[in-house]
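Task card 7
Instruction: Convert sequence to structure tokens.
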Amino acid sequence: MTTLTVSQLNRYIKSVLDETALLQSIYVSGEISNFKHYPSGHIYFTLKDSSSQIKCVMFSSDNASLRFNVENGMNVVCFGRIGVYERDGAYQLYVKGMHPKGIGELALAYEQLKSTLEKRGWFSPLHKKPIPKYPKKIGVATSNMGAAVEDIKNIISRRFPICELVIVATVVQGENAKNDIVRSLEFLDGLGVDTIIVGRGGGSLEDLQAFNTIEVAQAVYNCRTPVISAVGHETDYTICDFVADLRAPTPSAAAELAVPDINSELSYIEDSRAFMNKCINHKILELSQRLDSLSRFNEESVSLFISPYFEKLQQITKIMNDEMKRAINQKQLELSKAASMLNALSPLSVLARGYSLTTHNNTVITSANDVKTGDIITTKLRNSTIISRVTEVQYE
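Output:
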């Protein structure tokens, strides 16, 4: 009977599992729980169904290519191998690849990124910049080959030929597309163009993936220049569409939205000019008719016109004169009465009748007690003044 150590047993079980071809390339579906993402980049989780579970690990070199965020409760299909971690004697699924169950990986990544950026407010109308109505220069970030760039050039040259186009050849599909789109946007934003059109012709979800990345979304959001997203798909929206200041369903539509139709503008100017001329002519005619009417007035007609007003003015003048005379007479009478009363009360009148007024230091003397021997007193007569010194005060 052979006795094995724990290490020997775990090593043997590991070798058995490693040599079982079925377990070295296997797909397992289930629900993710106990998900943990470590600083090293490795992720650990449990894959479970209604009655069982298995521990899983996915190393950083394998999960770096995932296009969606792994979360607890997510139903996924994992591809990998079954192995034993000898130290703990536990078998687990070493995951090499993973995709959401029932929904494509790209579709899930799209929904996750859309939800994240919406919560950040990147889609809010508050961040949307108006598209200039009469741009002098438009920048275009798209492939320099294909129908998209030709449609943009043809439409803008036809609709608004005075606008300058700056086309930056950009990779719009494949692994390098997102970085190239970002570079083109940053270059055009620093060039001083009035509007930027970024986009491409139509394609599958995989073809349009670059426009559903956080890198492109951030570049569009950071642009100081208004951006029109023109990814060629009529019904579906990319993340770039949501972040951009304006979304166009196709590159052709973007060109039409970016510039006015010069023929329509010229027609509007012509209509405005005709309307202004009509208004001016109408005003001139109106003033001419008024001048005509005034020129028909002669001296007799003017006299007849102002005669009633002149008579009324004379009546008002007479009434005002009469009222003024009455007021003057009344005031003269009141003044005469006041003068008589003042004269009657005046000390001068009393003096004129033989009385005198004696004062000491400008104070009227009414009693012997008001003066003493040696005081200088002043006596006021009708037409003269006597100044004397008190030599004796007699009391009665």
